[in-house]
Amino acid sequence: MPQGLPRKLRYAFILQMVLASASVVIGALVAGSIVTDVLTDQLLHSEAEEFWDGRARDPAYPLPRSSTIQSYFANGQPAETVPAELRRFGTGISVLPGGKRKLIIDERPGGRLYLVMSFELVDAVIRRAEIVSILLALIAVYLTTWLTYRATKRLVTPVSWLARQVARWDPGNPDMQSIEPERMPGDSGGEVRQLTGALRNLTRRTHDLVARERDFTRDASHELRTPLTVIRVATDMMLADPQVPDRAHRTLLRMQHAGRDMEAIIDAFLILARESGHAPLTEDFEVAPLGEEAVGKVRPLLQDKPVELELVVAARPQLHASPRVLTVMLGQILDNACVFTEAGRIEVRLEATRIVVADTGIGMAPEVLRKVWAPFYRANTISPSGKGMGLSIVRRLGERFRWPVTLESTPGSGTVATIEFARDVIAGGS
């Protein structure tokens, strides 16, 4: 499940707090080290200057000594009084082994001054100051982060609530009353109220547009049934007349097939135009007779082709569903197989949980297979047959009633189409 906006904000503020805390601690430690180094250098230079100023006034001015400072002086003679470990250093400031003492060697015409300062006390004072500074800074960071998070959460709560309410909507019948302004939690703010109003207006307009399109599709489909029925009856009567010439007979067969195609498409449109909550009437039926009927309807398409059409009944499933839906889906797939198979074999195989239609037709390349579900797409633009709606309708019906349809195809070898039955509609079979 995708993370909600409040959780993402919480993670963002936690990450911000961690980074800010690390920056405060590292910055305080680095600053403390710099301050310690600069302060001890200044103290050493100050002590050395004070000693030389005193010697200028009084040649007997004593060397500076304290609990943190040791001093030695050499006036040009061998400096036996200076410890050997100090004599190896040059003039200037050096850090003695151990890292807790510093040495300054200041050589002038009057002699050489050695000052050794222990800065453990200075370091301890600065470290205590660092700890206090870090604690105060962290408290400020945590308090600021917490207050900012609370304020931000208060602002995004209405947005999260709005997203949850919209996610619960039925796409076919959205509950716009659930996002009325008086139901919104907390201080929603003007922007959220504007967003809610825009969403309600958009939903209402979309609902009206879908309703108009559905009504138009249903009404147009019903109106088209009457002339199609007249055409079908007329062609059936003319085909039954033995005096019709062979050439006219073939034309009438094409007209009959085109009329049946149109009836199948109209049936699909009527099914898809229904409300999502009003599915077609369901009943218990066997798939085998339906498959035999579908195969019989498309046999005339193969009269002039060396193509063998066979129904293989590997199982006799029984479904509790709409036979009309399955008839339209299987009919469109078989129609495509007959149109694009010039020679070879078309096999309709009934299995316990699916119908498989395999042909030895022209097949499809991968790039064509990716586009074949799109409305009005025709893989073979040279052939006058087909309107580019068949597979699109099959897929939409499959998605609507949870009967997934898959295609596998190889150029030059043929295509295999599979209709999987939804588990909850399989009533039985052998």
Question: What do you see in this structure?
Answer:
With 430 residues, the chain is an alpha+beta fold. The protein folds into three domains: 135 residues, no CATH class; 110 residues, Orthogonal Bundle (Helix Hairpins); 150 residues, Heat Shock Protein 90, CATH 3.30.565.10. Helix content is 53%, strand content 16%. The protein contains nine helices and twelve strands. The strands form three sheets. It has a five-stranded mixed beta sheet with strand order 6-8-9-11-10. A four-stranded antiparallel beta sheet has the order 1-4-3-2. α6 runs parallel beside α7. The two termini are 40 Å apart. The relative contact order is 0.06. The model has no long low-confidence stretch (mean pLDDT 81).
Short description:
By secondary structure, the chain is an alpha+beta fold. It contains 9 helices and 12 strands. It has helices at residues 5-57, 84-87, 120-167, 189-239, 246-273, 287-298, 323-339, 366-371, 390-400, and strands at residues 69-74, 92-95, 101-108, 111-118, 283-286, 307-313, 318-321, 344-350, 354-359, 405-410, 414-420, 426-428.
